[in-house]
Amino acid sequence: MALVSRRIRGRAPTGDYWPGFVDAMSSLLLVLIFLLTIFMITQFFLSQLVSNKDSALENLRNQIAELVNQLALERQEKADLQVTILSLQDSLSSATAERDRLAALAEEGAGAGSRVAELESALADEKQVSIEALAQVELLNQQIAALRRQLATLSAALDAAEQKDREQQAQIANLGRRLNAALAQKVQELAKYRSEFFGRLRAILGDRQDIEIVGDRFAMQSEIFFASGSADINPSGKQQLDKIAQAIREIAAEIPDDIPWVLRVDGHTDANPIATPQFPSNWYLSSARAIAVVNYLTEKGVPENRLVAAGFGQFHPLEQERSEAANRRNRRIEFKLTER
To answer: Distance between CA 291 and CA 239 in Å, rounded?
Structure first.
């Protein structure tokens, strides 16, 4: 390269470029030769490295094959040893059995006398056991006899208890009949006082069209006591209740104390619905009216324990129609003298 530079600097500028081109090509050729040399050296070392790795891999493969062969040999030797061990175990079992047989024969021959003694001792033990078993059987027989005597005693007691139970059942039945008869008598007496009570009410209240007897109940239309939609007793209603309270006090003084009677006051409404803050439904209105009548009768001296208030709403009408006359008849306060 220095020679080419000197040539370029030393010659006069002319139109001949060939020498410079030759120098450039020479330089390029030298570079290529250098690179090729480096490549060949690299290839040589890589070849050596690959060759060494192949050799190592081949050695590993040979070692693995050798180990596989050794493992196969070891397995074969193990199998042979197991066969040998089994054979030795069979031989040992046979020898042990033979030894035991010979020892048994020797003991049998040497201990015949001791065997007889043992048998005699065992026979004595069996006899003792038999004696004890017989004693236990005798004891069990005695216990069974005692149990039978107890069973007979219990059976007799059971028969006596059954007889007593039958007698008590007969007494209970007799008492039941007597009680039913007494109740029927009390009911008849109460019915007599109920009729007398209705008669007195009819005589006190007079022959009014808005008062009627329905079965065993004395029914009075609600308009006698209350304004429409109200549970406050009006003055004329209080006058009628004063008369009813007088009749109740009179009849209560005549009814015996052993008759459990009460005067039930039932409130009824018609089927027209009601919905007010005070009475959300006819249930409330009918109950409130019955309670108002009971409270007033209590104030007039009727015993509280002889009064019952019940509200039936519109669900037990006397008339199924919805006319004004039917509604007026269904709106009522009923008085019933009944048993508690």
So the answer is: 17
pLDDT of residue 310: 93
- For residues 205 and 200, give the distance between their C-alpha atoms in angstroms, rounded to a whole number: 8
The upper half-sphere exposure of residue 84, i.e. CA atoms within 13 Å in the direction of its Cβ, equals 6
Q: Give the mean pLDDT of the chain.
A: 79
318 φ/ψ angles, rounded to the nearest 5 degrees: -85, -30
pTM greater than the 0.90 cutoff? no
The pLDDT score that the predictor gives to residue 12 is 46
Q: What is the CA radius of gyration of the chain?
A: 66
**For 233, which DSSP code?**
B
Give the E-state strand segments of 104-237 in sequence order: 211-214, 217-221
Which residues make Cβ contacts (< 8 Å) with residue 286, sequence separation at least 6?
Answer: 267, 268, 269, 311, 312, 313, 314
CA nearest 224: which of 197, 203, 243, 199? 243
- Greatest CA separation found in the chain? 175
CA 311 → CA 63, 290, 294, distances in Å? 112, 6, 12
**Identity of residue 22:** V
Residue 260: closest CA among 334, 335, 186, 192 = 186
Residue 17: pLDDT over 80: no
Q: How far, in Å, CA of 30 to CA of 37, rounded? A: 10
What contacts 242, CB < 8 A, 6 or more positions away? 300
